[in-house]
Amino acid sequence: MLAVAAPAASAADNWDRPSQDFGNQNVGSTSDAKQFVLIATCDAFNGFPSFTCASPPNGVHQYGAITTTGPFAIDPDTDVCNARGGVLFTQTAGQPTDICTLQVAFKPTSSGVKTGSLRTTTSPSGNPLTVTLKGTGIGTGTTAKKCKKKKRSASAAKKKCKKKK
C-alpha cells in the first residue's frame, strides 16, 4: 500500500504569540484560561481570474493534534482547533487567513516555577509550532514539623520547637 503524505502547512502558519506567562497560581487550583489563536496565512495566490491560494495546495493548511505539556491543560469546551480536525482554509485573496482558537489553563500541583508548551505536531519545516508556557505554583501554607523531644530539659525542648516552626 502506498502512503500518501498530507500537504505541508504554510510557512506563514503560526501561533498568535511565542510564549505566555500565567503568573502566580495557588497549588491545587486552576488559573483563568488564556486564549490562543492558530493562524494560517496563504503565502501565494494564483493569478487572475481565480486568485486562489497556490501554496499550500488549494488553500488547505493541515496540522496535527494540538497538545500541552507540563501542568497546563487545554479546555476541551473551548477547543475549536482540534474540533476542526486539523484543517484551516485560506482559499481566496478575499480570505487570505483562517484561524482557530482554544483556551489553556495552568494547574500547578507543587510550588515553584513550572514550564511547559502548547504545540502542534506538524509545520512546514517538520518541526512543531510551539508556544512556551510558564507559571509559578504558590504553596497555600506550610505545615509545621513536629518537634521530637530528646532526653533533655523541658525548657530546652520548648526552645528547640519554637525555632523549627
Briefly characterize the structure.
The chain is built from 2 helices and 12 strands.
What is the fold's blueprint, element by element?
Elements: E1 14-15, E2 19-26, E3 34-41, E4 44-45, E5 53-55, E6 60-62, E7 66-68, E8 72-74, H1 80-83, E9 87-89, E10 97-106, E11 112-120, E12 130-138, H2 154-164
Parallel strand pairs: 2-12
Antiparallel strand pairs: 1-3, 3-10, 4-5, 6-9, 7-11, 8-10, 11-12
Descriptive labels:
165 residues, Immunoglobulin-like, 2 helices, elongated, disordered N terminus, disordered C terminus
Write up what this structure looks like:
This protein is mainly beta and about 160 residues long. It has a single domain (about 15-140), classed as Immunoglobulin-like (Sandwich), CATH 2.60.40.10. The chain is built from two helices and twelve strands. The strands form four sheets. Strands 1-3-10-8 form a four-stranded antiparallel β-sheet, with no helix packed on it. Strands 2-12-11-7 form a four-stranded mixed β-sheet, with no helix packed on it. The radius of gyration is 25 Å and the shape is elongated. It starts with 13 loop residues before the first strand and ends with a helix.
